[in-house]
Structures are given as C-alpha cells and as structure tokens.
Automatic annotation (TrEMBL):
It comes from the Bacteria. It comes from Frondihabitans sucicola. Residues 70-134 form the BetI-type transcriptional repressor C-terminal domain. This is TetR family transcriptional regulator. InterPro entries: BetI_C, Tet_transcr_reg_TetR-rel_C_sf. It holds the Pfam family TetR_C_6.
C-alpha cells in the first residue's frame, strides 16, 4: 500500500477522487435540481466519506498541504460546472432576473458544503437535499412545460 500511497493524505485523496467519479455517475443525465437531490441523498448514506471530505478540505486551506491542489481544483471545476448549468437555464429563460450564473454557482457550492457540515454535526436536524432544493427555488423559475 505504501508503494501506491506514500502518505496518509495520498490514500485519502484517492478515496475522494473515487467519490467524485461515483458522484458524476449519480448525476449524469439529470437536470440540475434532480442531480443535486440524487447526490445529496447518496451522500446521506455515506457520512464517513462526507466527514473525510469536510475534514480534509478544512485542513487543506494552506497551499503547502498535499490536498490543497485537489480541493482548489475541485472547487474551481464545480463552480464552473454549476455556472454553466445556471447559464443554460438563463438562456432558456428559467433563471430569475438579476441572478448572475457564476455567483449562483459559487453560492451553491458554498451552501452545499456549509449545510453538509451542519448535517454532520446534527444529522437529524438538517436536510441537505431540502436546503439545496430551496436555494434552487430562489434562483430558478419553474419549468412551464
């Protein structure tokens, strides 16, 4: 194992990279709101992985930390992806007036991580999927089709 993962952080990052790949599989082909709900429901069944993600993320704020590049890259990609999805909704006339797609994407990332942390602290009190759906209802107009 030490051959493939010379440090503990390398092993933990491999676990998180695998989690990211599986998360993409969960959301593939789903609309933004459906994909978020599916991912949040899946995450609720894997609290240990979510705790690992949250802990390692907090530890990696220093540029010298081995996980810093992983998390800064992940945040950049996630913000860009959500921004693109919000931009597509804007082009379809479904984003509320005055909503900036990139800021909405950054806000969604911040909300998700923050609510997920609260859920880890009080699992019976916080519903991550409900918080995400509520946020989306504030920025996205209902589909009229």
């Amino acid at each position: 194992m030490l051959h493939h993962f010379p440090a503990k952080e390398d092993l933990l990052l491999a676990v998180l990279a695998d989690r990211d790949l599986r998360g993409d599989d969960i959301k593939d082909g789903l609309a933004l709101d459906e994909g978020l709900s599916a991912q949040a429901s899946h995450n609720a069944g894997t609290p240990g992985i979510i705790e690992l993600y949250t802990t390692l993320c907090a530890e990696s704020t220093s540029p010298e930390h081995p996980a810093h590049a992983y998390f800064s890259g992940r945040f950049r990609r996630t913000r860009a992806s959500f921004g693109e999805q919000f931009r597509a909704l804007q082009q379809a006339g479904r984003l509320r007036s005055g909503v900036d797609p990139d800021l909405a994407g950054a806000g969604l990332v911040a909300l998700w991580d923050g609510v997920q942390l609260q859920w880890l602290m009080e699992p019976g009190e916080v519903d991550v999927a409900a918080a995400l759906r509520h946020y989306l209802s504030l920025v996205i107009l209902p589909d009229r089709h």
